[in-house]
Amino acid sequence: MSEEKEPLVEVPMWDLPVRLFHWSFVAAFAICWISGQSGDMYLHYVSGMVLAGLVIFRVLWGLVGSPTARFAHFLRWPNAAIAYLREHLLHRLPSHSHGHNAAGGLMVAALVALVALQTLSGMTSTDDVLFDGPLYGRLPDWLDRPLEKYHSLLGNVLLALALLHILVIVLYRVLKRENLVRAMILGRARLPRSVARMAEQGGQTKSAPVWRALVCAAIAAAVPTAIHVTLMS
After folding, report:
1. Could you tell me how many helices (H) and strands (E) the chain has, helices first?
2. Is the model's pLDDT at 144 over the cut of 50?
3. Cα–Cα distance for residue pair 74/58, rounded to 1 Å
4. Which residues are registered as beta bridge partners of 11?
5. Which region, left, alpha or beta, applies to residue 77 given φ > 0 means left and ψ of -120 to 50 means alpha?
6. Residue 207 gets which letter from DSSP?
7. Which residues partner with 132 through β-bridges?
8. φ, ψ for residue 189 (rounded to 5)?
C-alpha cells in the first residue's frame, strides 16, 4: 500500500514551547515592523527587545528542547533543501514530513539568524532626535556603522521572508491539502501510519521536560532585560 493511500493518524509533532515561540514571534515581528513604519520608537524598541529574547529562547531550545525542535533534527545542507523543493514543492502529493523538512529547516535558521542580526543592528541605531539604542556609540565604528546603516534594509528582507513563508503555507494547503497551521496550533499532525510509527520509534514524538523550557525562558528574558537596565539607565 502506497503512502498516499495509508490511513492518516494523529501524531504529536510540535511541543508547547515551540508553538508559543512561533506565535509570539509572529506577533512581536508584526508589532515591531508596523511601529517602525509609523515612527513609534518606544513600541519599536520594546517589541525589538522581545524579539531578541525570543531568538535567544529559540537558540537554547534548539539545543536542549524536544526532538523536533532541535537544530540537529532539521538543519540540512542547502543541496538537501534544493533537492526537497524540486521533488515536493509544486507536486500535489502531500509531503508528510514529521517536523521541518530540509527547506523549512533552513528557513527557520535564516529567520532566527536574520532577526538576531536585526535586533543587534537596532540596538546600535538612533533616530537623531529622541531615541538611541542601548549599543549606540558603544561598538567600534567598523561594526557600528554598517549595522545601523542596514537596519531598515534587513527589516524589509525579513518581511519578504515572512511573506514567502506564508506563501509556502498557502501552497501546501491548496496544492497538497496539508494544513501546516493546524499542526502549529494544536501541536499534532495527521500523517500516514508508517510515518507516524517511524517518528514514534525514533523518539521524535517525545517532549522535553517543562523545567528546561522554563530555564530557557528565564535566560531569554534576563539577557535583554540586563542589556536594557545596564545600558539604558
Report:
1. 10, 2
2. yes
3. 14
4. 189
5. beta
6. -
7. 126
8. -120, 155
Q: What is the pTM of this model?
A: 0.90
Cell 508508517 locates to 194
Buried b (16+ CB within 10 A) or exposed e, 16-41: ebbbebbeebeebbebbbebbeeeeb
CA–CA gap between residue 43 and residue 49 (Å, rounded):
10
C-alpha cell at 226: 540586563
> Which architecture does CATH list for 3-232?
Up-down Bundle (1.20)
Please report, for the chain, the start and end positions of each structural domain, with discontinuous segments joined by +.
3-232
Region for 169 from its dihedrals, namely left if φ exceeds 0, alpha if ψ lies in -120 to 50, beta otherwise:
alpha
Overall size of the chain counted in residues: 233
Give the pLDDT band of residue 130 (cuts 50, 70, 90).
confident
Is residue 136 within 8 Å of 123, Cβ to Cβ?
A: yes
